[in-house]
């Protein structure tokens, strides 16, 4: 299947939930995983840098643009068997996947309620919440990589906490086309009750403004957790310090630079509260990281991915 029409110099802010960033050099929207595979393989063959975007809910493209081809993935087909096998195109929304699997009486993906991205984006950052993550349920992944389409074992992705091989510096040029999962049968009432409870907790915590969700990853550091008097006991036991706790303790809750602000409800959300540029958002993030390093001696690591050309960026 041939990919659709390629457009040049397309503003990316409307393709991201942070509503910021410059232009894609070239952009194409694809509606089928075959089209996604064809576009990715063509770009790989001509050594053109390629960025696949799902819902753009975990990225910040540079104001100076994203070179090469940006592929907007709108391939959304999902097939669910009552035996628990699931086959989904990578552009389907993670929440739709939960709904379709729940309708078939399958449990496991309740945590996806409220995570706004696609399944492809979820795999790249091993998205998760409430002690579950997407990698737990995978049985296979179809990728376009190294000049061919192939099914690989989930271990190919080298998953860890909010991380995979596709987030590393110089990652392999690969597009995720389809994913296969196996989910256990569950009690329908328990599935929906759990999902509703997660949704209720999110509504209480998540601000409505433009954001990319949690900007930084939480910190796994048992010694730091133990040393923080006001950290809840469950987090001390787990040795986990939420990034939002550190940012808030550094006095930055609600702190604003230009159009970018650390959330007032949830300090680990950076919000675009008024036409923020990507540079403003990244500068605020750098300021937060600096203050947390000064106060606690730890380096926060971004969960959000910076896309494109940042060579002119200074803090
Ligand atoms: C309000 C809000 C709440 C959130 N809550 C959570 C949460 O609870 N837990 C959590 O883990 N995340 C959360 N997120 C972050 C985000 O929604 C997830 O990381 C999501 O899975 C990203 O999917 P996406 O389609 O938007 O990816 P994008 O932002 O479009 O892309 C992310 C990265 O994946 C790459 N990519 C995307 N699709 C493909 C593909 N098919 N093949 C190869 N590479 C690809 C992109 O190039 C990019 O590097 C939240 C975000 C928001 C805005």
Note the topology.
Layout: E1 7-11, E2 23-30, H1 33-45, E3 50-53, E4 59-61, E5 66-73, E6 78-80, E7 85-89, H2 94-103, H3 119-124, E8 128-129, E9 132-133, E10 138-145, E11 148-152, E12 174-182, H4 188-205, E13 219-220, H5 222-227, H6 233-238, E14 240-241, H7 243-249, E15 256-257, E16 260-262, E17 270-272, H8 278-296, E18 305-307
Parallel strand pairs: 2-5, 3-5, 4-18
Antiparallel strand pairs: 1-2, 6-7, 7-12, 8-9, 10-11, 10-12, 13-14, 15-16, 16-17
Flavin-adenine dinucleotide binds at residues 17, 51-59, 73, 90, 115-118, 120-122, 124-125, 127-129, 166, 175-176, 206, 211-213, 305.
Question: Could you explain how this protein is built, in words?
Answer:
The structure is a single chain. By secondary structure, the chain is α+β, with helices and mostly antiparallel strands. The protein folds into three domains: 7-73, Uridine Diphospho-n-acetylenolpyruvylglucosamine Reductase, domain 2; 78-191, Uridine Diphospho-n-acetylenolpyruvylglucosamine Reductase, domain 3, CATH 3.30.465.10; 212-307, Uridine Diphospho-n-acetylenolpyruvylglucosamine Reductase, domain 1 (Alpha-Beta Complex). The protein contains eight helices and 18 strands. The protein has helices at residues 33-45, 94-103, 119-124, 188-205, 222-227, 233-238, 243-249, 278-296, and strands at 7-11, 23-30, 50-53, 59-61, 66-73, 78-80, 85-89, 128-129, 132-133, 138-145, 148-152, 174-182, 219-220, 240-241, 256-257, 260-262, 270-272, 305-307. A five-stranded antiparallel sheet has the order 6-7-12-10-11. Strand 15 and strand 16 form a beta hairpin. The longest helix is centred in the C-terminal third of the chain and has 19 residues, at 278-296. It is globular. It starts with 6 loop residues before the first strand and ends in an 8-residue tail after the last strand. 47% of the residues are buried. The mean pLDDT is 96. The protein binds flavin-adenine dinucleotide.
């Amino acid at each position: 299947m041939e990919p659709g029409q390629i457009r040049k110099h397309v503003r990316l802010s409307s393709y991201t939930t942070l509503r910021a960033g410059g232009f894609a050099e070239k952009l194409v929207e694809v509606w089928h995983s075959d089209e996604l595979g064809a576009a990715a393989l063509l770009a790989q063959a001509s050594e053109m840098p390629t960025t696949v975007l799902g819902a753009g809910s975990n990225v910040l493209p540079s104001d100076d643009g994203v070179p090469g081809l940006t592929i907007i993935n709108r391939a959304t087909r999902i097939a669910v068997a009552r035996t628990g096998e699931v086959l989904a195109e990578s552009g389907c929304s993670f929440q739709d996947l939960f709904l379709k699997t729940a309708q078939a009486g399958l449990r496991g993906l309740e945590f996806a309620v409220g995570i706004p991205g696609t399944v492809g984006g979820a795999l790249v950052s091993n998205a998760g919440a409430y002690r579950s993550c997407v990698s737990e349920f995978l049985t296979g992944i179809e990728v376009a990589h190294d000049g061919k389409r192939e099914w690989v074992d989930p271990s190919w992705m080298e998953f860890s906490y909010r991380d995979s091989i596709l987030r590393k510096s110089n990652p392999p040029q690969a597009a995720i086309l389809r994913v296969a999962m196996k989910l256990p049968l569950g009690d329908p009432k328990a599935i929906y009750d759990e999902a509703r409870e997660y949704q209720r907790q999110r509504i209480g915590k998540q601000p409505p403004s433009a954001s990319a969700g949690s900007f930084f990853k939480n910190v796994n550091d048992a010694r730091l957790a133990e040393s923080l008097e006001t950290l809840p006991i469950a987090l001390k036991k787990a040795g986990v310090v939420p990034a939002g706790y550190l940012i808030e303790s550094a006095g930055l809750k609600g702190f604003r630079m230009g159009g970018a602000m650390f959330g007032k409800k949830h300090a680990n959300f950076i919000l675009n509260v008024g036409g923020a540029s990507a540079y403003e958002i990244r500068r605020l993030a750098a300021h937060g990281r600096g203050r947390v390093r000064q106060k606690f001696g730890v380096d926060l690591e971004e969960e959000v991915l910076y896309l494109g050309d940042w060579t002119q960026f200074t803090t």
